Amino acid sequence: MNKRAIGMFDSGCGGLTVLKEYMKLMPNEDFIYFGDTAHLPYGDKSPEKIIEYCEEIVKFLITKDVKMIIIACGTASATAYEYLKEKYDIEIRNIITPTAQILEDKSIGVIATKATIKSNAWEKAIHSFNPNANITSIACPLFVPIIEECLIENEGTPYFIKEYISKLNIESTKISSIVLGCTHYPLLKDQIQEEVGFQVQLIDIGEISAKDTLKYLNANNLQNNSDHVGTIELFASDDFESFKENAKKMGFKI
Ligand code: DGL
Q1: How far apart are the C-alpha atoms of 39 and 152, rounded to whole Å?
Q2: Span 168-181, mean pLDDT?
Q3: Distance between CA atoms of 175 and 106, rounded to whole angstroms?
Q4: Ligand 1 geometric centre to CA of 24 (Å)
Q5: Which terminus of the chain is more solvent-facing, meaning fewer CB atoms within 10 Å of its CB: N or C?
Q6: Where in the sequence numbering do the catalytic residues fall?
Q7: Is 94 in the pocket of ligand 1 (CB under 6 A)?
Q8: Is 153 a domain residue?
Q9: Quick check: CB of 10 below 6 Å from ligand 1?
Q10: Same domain, 35 and 81
């Protein structure tokens, strides 16, 4: 047993989709979540900058004495994970590997931020487990601002979803699963599903990460006491009020 909290971070509210999945599966755990709203979006930044921002967050979470750190951000997982894992002793987990290791489809779509797509992190990770997979990846740079600006329900949003999804050429590529490779994207899941049709499976990387971490906690006897009622503590590097508003809209009681 280990009563310390689990640290988690993202550039903004996207990682809260991951936190939700963790809270469902691990109701006894305490979580400390950091949204780097001062530097959002990460998706159009260079890997060097993203590493610099993430390193500050990791140092902050370490001062909070967390037992492990979950990178609840596809972009940071794709660009900063290797560096952070090498440099810090604490267990740091990325959000890409758990999904990559279970994808068995022949033809897979990946949608994510520009920085993630440019890194080829998803191709490398999927091919290391499923070498023959055909992968079509596209960047959807407008999705994060749409979400952070609370425009999910805006009448213009389906137009941009259609634009990006059309680039996957689902008919000809015969894609059977699409990885929502950015943790903000589950917030657009219903609209994306409507656009791609129900024969295509949308993969929620937060849900898969939560299952994987639960296994890890159990295997290493790191779970909190089963009588404990888990808590969450939220931090943001800027405009905590807007961040809190987004969190409330996502169903967090704060
Ligand atoms: N939620 C992020 C991700 O998973 C953030 C993207 C961004 O800040 O551009 O990639």
Answers
A1: 21
A2: 96
A3: 8
A4: 22
A5: C
A6: 73, 182
A7: no
A8: yes
A9: yes
A10: yes
Which of 45, 57, 75, when mutated, tests ligand 1's pocket best, judged by the most ligand atoms within 8 Å of its CB? 75
Q: What span, in angstroms and rounded, lies between the C-alpha atoms of 70 and 201?
A: 25
Identify the pLDDT of residue 148. 86
Q: Could you read off the pLDDT of 101-136 as tens digits, one per residue?
A: 999 999 999 999 999 999 999 999 999 999 999 999
**If you measure from the C-alpha of residue 14 to the centroid of ligand 1, how many angstroms do you get, rounded to a whole number?**
7
Q: Would 84 be classed as within a structural domain? A: yes
Given this model, what pLDDT does residue 142 score? 96
CATH number at residue 17: 3.40.50.1860
For the record, the structure tokens of 62 come out as: 């370490």
Residue 14 CB less than 6 A away from ligand 1: yes
Q: Give yes or no for a contact between 34 and 61, defined as CB atoms under 8 angstroms apart.
A: yes
Q: What is the average per-residue pLDDT within 52-64? A: 98
Q: Decide: pTM greater than 0.90.
A: yes
- Tell whether 90 and 105 lie within a shared domain: no
Q: Ligand 1 centre and the CA of 186: distance in Å?
A: 12
| Pocket flag, ligand 1, residue 182 (CB < 6 Å) | yes
Four-residue CA torsion sign, 129, 110, 50, 114:
positive
pLDDT at 209 (0 to 100): 98
Mean pLDDT of 139-158: 93
Domain boundaries, position 105: 97-205
pLDDT of residue 149: 87
In a domain, 232, yes or no: yes
Cα–Cα distance, 200 to 101 (Å, whole number): 19
